[in-house]
Design a protein that fits this description.
328 residues; alpha/beta; six-stranded mixed beta sheet; five-stranded mixed beta sheet; 30% helix; globular; disordered N terminus
Length: 328
Amino acid sequence: MTATDVQTTTAATAGSSAPLRLGTRASVLARTQSQAVADAVTAATGVPVELVLISTEGDRSSASIAQLGSTGVFVAAIRRALLDGEVDLAVHSYKDLPTAPEPGLSLAAVPAREDPRDALVARDGLTLGELPPGSRIGTGAPRRVAQLRALGLGLEIVPIRGNVDTRLGRVAGSAGGPGDLDAVVLARAGLSRIDRAHLITETLDPLQVLPAPAQGALAVECRSSDARTRELLGRLEDTAVRACVVAERATLATLEAGCSAPVAAYAEIAEGETGPELFLRASVTALDGSDAVRGSLTGAPADAAALGRTLAADLLDRGAASLMAVGR
């Protein structure tokens, strides 16, 4: 595979230090969040970072996420370039990563997390509850489809693909065009990162629509054998965020589900009576919205993975596996 296009970061304060090559998808969102990590690495270490743009299967396909099936469609080509030595590190939207570790690669850092909630961008500034029955709502995520249907608002859910601006352009009056949708639901984090947060008409409460595991978080990978890069990237680590996403993704992994399954999980850390406590919520919803199982668990951040596995086992005991098959 040949990496296409190379963009050098504007931060070049590293003197004679060899620059790091950062592999990223070419979308505006991917480049923006990769540039933010590149700038943070340079600020923390003095080492310059170059962006290397790489085309992935997910970028080339017009199929829906559910049709693509694999959680790795946006990361496989980038990981291949990393393992082949064409780039030194990669930045992923953490929720796009398969839950199984990749041999030869290390998750060197989980930086600070953006707001993980989902956001509505609707015509005429409307909120979800204000949209009339029959309104056309666009989303590409089975999790969102299932949870929106479960609300019983009589909305028509329309499957969509494309970058953020393409999706926004389909909302009537949102991006200067007539549009064929009344609203879209997107990750608030992505809208914030590319300065589109002003278009949000409602940030959805997790009690209504629980986020995807690791939504809003970034994963910074490098080769396991590259001790220098692992040390440099480790300076970006946010231990609280890592604990939260470890719990969320342990839930997902135990359910043996990926991004094409209607699984949600969200963890937060707060100060408890005896120190920090991790509060984890998760749900599995039938794709047609007809039923759901939900649960929550609290424990020590150090036990994040065990908490995720325990909560997932509880959901499975209450019928989660059969719900994931409904509507398939």
